[in-house]
User: What shape does this take?
Amino acid sequence: MKKIKFNDGWTFQNLLKHSEPVEVRLPHDAMQTEKRLVNMKNGAAAGFFPGGKYQYTKHFGADSAWKDKSVLIEFEGIYQNSTVILNGKKIGGWVYGYSGFVLDISRNLILDAENELTVIADNSRTPNSRWYTGSGIYRNVNLYIGAPSHISVDGIEAVTKRVDYKNQCAYVSVTTKVNDVTGCELQITLWDDNKNKVSEASGIHTEMIVPHVKLWSDEHPYLYTLKAELRRNGKVVDQEAILFGIRELRWSAERGLLVNNESVKLRGGCIHHDNGILGSCAYDGIEERKIKLLKEAGFNAIRSAHNPASKALLTACDKYGMYVMDEAFDQWRFMKVDYDYSIYFEKYYEEDVSAMIRKDISHPSVIMYSIGNEIGDTGSDEGAVWNRILVDICHKLDASRPVINCINPVVSMMGGRKSKCSPQDSVNPYEETKNAQATASLLANIIVTVVPFVQKMMGKPKKVEKKLKACFDELDIVGLNYAENCYEPHHAYDPKRIMLGSETYPHSMAERWKLVEAHPYVIGDFMWTAMDYLGEAGVGVPIYGKAKGGFNRPYPCVSGGCGAINLLGQKETEMYAAAIAWKKYKKPYIAVRPVNHSGEKYFLGMWRDTDAVHSWSWPGCQGKNAQIEIYSIGTEVELFQNGESLGRKKLEFCKASYETIYQMGRLKAVSYDEKGNKIDEDELISAGDATRLCVKAEKEVLTADGEDMTFVLVSLTDAAGIVKMLSDRQIRVSVLGNGILRAIGNGNPVTEEAFDGDSYHSWMGQMGFYVQSTEEEGTIVIDVSAKGTEAEQIILQTKRR
Assistant: This one.
């Protein structure tokens, strides 16, 4: 079928506020149009952004040539409780905000006339999530036009059945879902990246033999093109093609996770679905940027916490070689917040799991399905039954991938209850509650308090197994959240069990990774979190002036503040520490605790390991005590200040700490191996007096399609390009020509500034923004200015494909 992006030409309005329609282009996050509310219920979880009820409308013509054609519309994701109306008639919708769905609109079209398509997204029943969800049509919309006999959307299901390593060939099973196959023949062909046909077969259910096979993996993400042609009387009536990687998965406690018969340890990161200052909008290019940044940082796996990933994200994972744990749910029958998925679970679980697997099955990057995250039900007999039901659904639909449940033994022990709320309730999402900030994180604070006591118990298998053995035994892989002390004692209890650190604290990565490397039955570690995200406000935001703090931070905190990569996509110290533990970063890395907070009490929280940054520029801090952390591979490091050695120190779990008196100048760290030989060095230099703007776009040429986008980083630097940490100021941005300023912000998790303006303050010397192309060829002129500096201009090009 012919696929047409259906993202432009929409209008948007807030139904609860009776706003006037405004023109928008999809993807669109309606939550970003809302004013943040200081005292909204469960405000910290959502970054203090309220939900609402929204209407999207698109008018379009239906050509007379569409007569006797099948016309389908695909919504890749609407948050949430959507209703789709065409020409005044309801034609469908979906409850779960993370599932895509397809509707046949053929019979409801008016040919040779204007048609009106309306989508209602009802996210008014809040709170319904523990993190920032966004609202509205936040993923792509696609229109498909073709013959009544056609290949279904996502209708090609290709799975590697077996690889014959001796003969260098692979066996691939292909099932093609066809609408009205009467009188048709189906031809399947496989093409390499040089456009050579390497295999062919025929039939709805068929198996292909691929000779001289090139296998897909994280290190070699080779992709073939798989084509399906539907023919009737020799004539092609429909055709579809997908990119497909051939790879074989095996798993056992004895050998661990094998990809193409080679052991793989998952250097994993959990990610939420939002894109930082862009909100929840799943732009194709930005989803790709996210995966590219994560791969370059050293990750080889992501966990889509805690909902099914977008199509664009999986496509990027296929391209760059990123393994994926795609996750279905954050709740089953027991609630976590009032109006979460638990009130829908029993009615819709099967169609939502099926939608996830249908989306994922031909993506080589997807290597396991997660049926839940920290599900309180799992500690009960009923929860064990639901665990088995979900595992069985996954195995029935796709037996080629293992099924995992990401279990937090603390949560399972605590159990839970069903929500007393109903999908029919009427809720005012803008209502503010007295003491909302104090009560919103009460349960989380209690859990954080009791965790150390409960964790001691988790190392005693008999007590945990009494509650969870029924669930554990049904799973291919047992996911353990914050429970690495379970690995060895639980292996002794059940040597056949495969375990994965499905969610772990950012600290102690080097210590945990030694456990992962030492034991084949532990197949990897997924740190919380790979990238900072909106909502769960402040779980990793430092507090200065006091030694204790709670789970969240109050308004105006907007993000978790716990990402190894921040809201703009910049690596933080914890990212380098993890990469060093994985031996993916070979140089030493110098990080300095904020000297402007020298001597103060501080609290980092459980989801931040350090507040140290890669800078030796602290104006006004001369003579203050400076705490320095050095992360490195090797055995020892040596630190030099202005050419004078501060001594050699042994590395303990890839880290050594120093203290000195801050003076402007240079810091140099040198790393050494066990024989005393130099490995490498890192150096920090204090910034000079001059201040200038440095403006750098990640891409200089954009596709003129109205969808392509680039990120632009703005830094306040000295004449040599060294970032000035404490010289922050408001920076103004102007975008003219064939581009649109789509979002603006910085990496600061605490802010009242909006992401949709034309100016923003820098933070730690930097800020950034996204520019999107129009559909016209030409130039985009970007001017950046700030008080006390000379303005800077860059020019980008836009070109059609």
Q: What stands out?
A: Residues 537 and 560 are 5 Å apart (CA to CA). The radius of gyration is 27 Å. The chain is about 15% helix and 35% strand. Confidence is low (pLDDT under 50) at residues 438-442.
